[in-house]
């Protein structure tokens, strides 16, 4: 059996529920779990390198008046997510401001982790057990603090120079095994092959790349971003169709199982590592 985890990043208080519904109804209908890396208290001032608002900030018509908006302030979104148990909420930073967990101030890292978790719980979601850092950037201090609080840490890659010193033996063993995923204590550390479902990739090659990846790996974390399917707030139908074709592929394969992050601890680690 091969396993797939679908991770969609950047759901936040400004996310229109109909966008998620348009993207993921084919997954929910087939019983395929969708893991939403959710920003607990989004910073609406977050900007890209060119000074434009980040793509996940749908500011027009959303009544954004505060500098930071907790996920619970969007009752329509929260009700939609709670009403569709196929969505699994994981913690995506705290504010998603610039490289917020690429810092050495351990006290500030801990404060943001705790604050983010509190906002998710206050909105009515279960206590998050999986953490995703904004931009997949984590300092040594952030890794240690996150691993102390979460059962799963999902990121792009692990750099030796950023790892807590106590993790070095496990990392060396991982490198000897040529493994992508590994475990330290009770925390699963998952990497991913980049955003295969991205608007930066040629549409005609995306599904083929996903199939090749899934068929050659025991566990694949597929990362995408809901807002990329709605440039300028309008649906990109050809790109959305690629996502829906991915759902069809995953559902059609008896040797592939789509799981949530929460299901990882129930798997035999020997088959993943």
Structure, described:
The chain has 273 residues and is an alpha/beta fold. 33% of the residues lie in helices and 18% in strands. The protein contains eight helices and eleven strands. Strands 1, 2, 5, 6, 7, 8, 9, 10 and 11 form a nine-stranded mixed beta sheet that branches. Helix 4 links the parallel strand 6 and strand 7. The radius of gyration is 18 Å and the shape is globular. The mean pLDDT is 94.
Topology diagram in text:
Elements: E1 2-11, H1 17-29, E2 34-38, E3 41-43, E4 68-70, H2 75-82, E5 87-92, H3 106-122, E6 130-132, H4 140-147, E7 152-154, H5 168-177, E8 182-184, E9 187-190, H6 203-216, E10 219-225, H7 237-252, E11 256-258, H8 269-272
Parallel strand pairs: 1-2, 1-10, 1-11, 2-5, 5-6, 6-7, 7-9
Antiparallel strand pairs: 3-4, 8-9
Helix pairs in contact: 1-7, 3-4, 6-7
Gist of the model:
The chain is α/β, with parallel strands linked by helices and 273 residues long. It has eight helices and eleven strands.
Distance between the termini: 14 Å
Number of helical stretches of at least 4 residues: 8
Mean of all residue-level pLDDT scores: 94
Low-confidence stretches: none
| Gyration radius from CA atoms, angstroms | 18 Å
Q: Largest sheet, described in full?
A: 9 strands, mixed
Number of strands: 11
Tell me the fraction of residues in β-strands, as a range.
15-25%
SSE order = EHEEEHEHEHEHEEHEHEH
Shape: globular
Helix content: 25-40%
Structural class: alpha/beta
